[in-house]
Write a structure and sequence with these properties.
The longest helix is centred in the N-terminal third of the chain and has 32 residues, at 100-131. Strand 5, helix 15 (376-386) and strand 6 (408-410) form a beta-alpha-beta unit. The chain has helices spanning 2-20, 22-28, 34-53, 63-92, 100-131, 137-146, 154-181, 213-219, 235-253, 265-276, 297-305, 308-324, 332-337, 341-350, 376-386, 437-450, and strands at 193-196, 224-226, 258-263, 283-289, 359-363, 408-410. The protein has 2 domains: 2-175, no CATH class; 185-450, Alpha/Beta hydrolase fold, catalytic domain (Rossmann fold), CATH 3.40.50. It is 55% helix and 6% strand. The protein has 16 helices and 6 strands. Strands 2-1-3-4-5-6 form a 6-stranded parallel sheet, sandwiched between helices. Helix 1 packs across helix 3 (34-53) and helix 9 (235-253) packs across helix 10. It is an alpha/beta fold and 453 residues long.
Length: 453
Amino acid sequence: MKFLSILRDCLLAVPLVLFGNLLLIWHLGEGTALPLRIGATVLLSFWYLAVLLRIYRRHSGSRRLAVISHGLRLLRYSMLCFFAEPLLYLFLIPIVPHTWESFWWLLGNFLFFAIFMLFMLLCGLLRLGIAARQVKWYWYLILYLVCWMPAVNLIPLWQIYRTAKRELHFEAAKLELDAARKENEICKTKYPVFMVYGIFFRDWQFFNYWGRIPAALKKNGAQVYYGKQQSAQSIAASAAELAEQMRAVLQETGAEKLNIIAHSKGGLDTRYAMQELGMSPYVASLTTINTPHHGCAWVDSILASLPPALTEWVARRYESVFRGLGDKNPDFLGGIRDLTAARCSEFNRTHPICPDIPHHCIMSEMRHAFSAPFPLWLGYLCIKKENRKARCDGLVPVDAAVLEGVPFTMLPQSRFRGISHGDMIDLNRENIEDFDVREFYIGLVKELKEKGL
């Protein structure tokens, strides 16, 4: 099948090679009838435009994937033409008369070919730049910097092509899987899914905290709602807003309870709302994702080492920005201090788990500092500085995510990079090898449905 695909591309690229050599066709075919040469020019030009502008049918029902598919085709065709052109010249040099006239025709033909094939290549890159979300921006920058270096420029070009092709196949398979199981509604739980985010974010404004996860859950039948608490406050203040939003969702849906999935500090906020604010009767289950139940000791160290004036300045800058994003009374230091090991130790002493409510703690781990972008690699280094043997997700040590008496799941590590704190909420919208975050959450909610929750 792969051989047939390559053969098909080669055959489709032949008219493009001929179009790129129209000047040579006119020069070498001077003895041919003029209408025949004009007809060949029109047909080859039409073929070039058709390949360049053709809107292919939706790929697996997705317009975005169709654009990626078209961009990949343009890259393949342009590269095949670039590889074929030198072979053509090697064939023509012994045949073409060695005169100045022939030299200028060859030079003009080469420039004509280069302009139109480069334009096709750029059109393909533009389509991938618009539609392929897994290709990192720096590969385009590297290609721009080395585009004038033969052979070297093939390295970033191949990386862009390979990544986009992998995304096309991955997303197409996922769409097909969702379509096949749509009628089963495997995520249609008895109680709505209530997703609670962590600190330093707003999950309902501008940029969804949970990435592509909610859409994947909804495609499979889930009812999804959000915590909508302010980005940074103490656990008590966030829990109060959380409890208010929970009551609003219960009233809107008519549901008796909620299945809560809470990430990071959101797990602590939820536990407080359940035990201090009377929300336990309305919680069907609580799943915490990378939650620092025992705090982050490295936060204690940073707060102790930084000058108070600096921490106050950072807090003021943060609060000023997030007031502009909708927070009424953000409290940067209040949120940070509640994540220290000492505060969390006291929190766990005064807030034991509710035995009647199913709990589940889930945690992941980074393999090295470069497993995630800033600031997670900085957090990773800080934790390693405190304890070289410590395992963490970039913000939360693995041991801190364990809650006594609660089932604990440590995710299998991705082969090369591990799974960071941000990866667990699809923060970077990245398809990670060996870990499909959307399928992971679909599996979580499916299990809740199977348990009658």
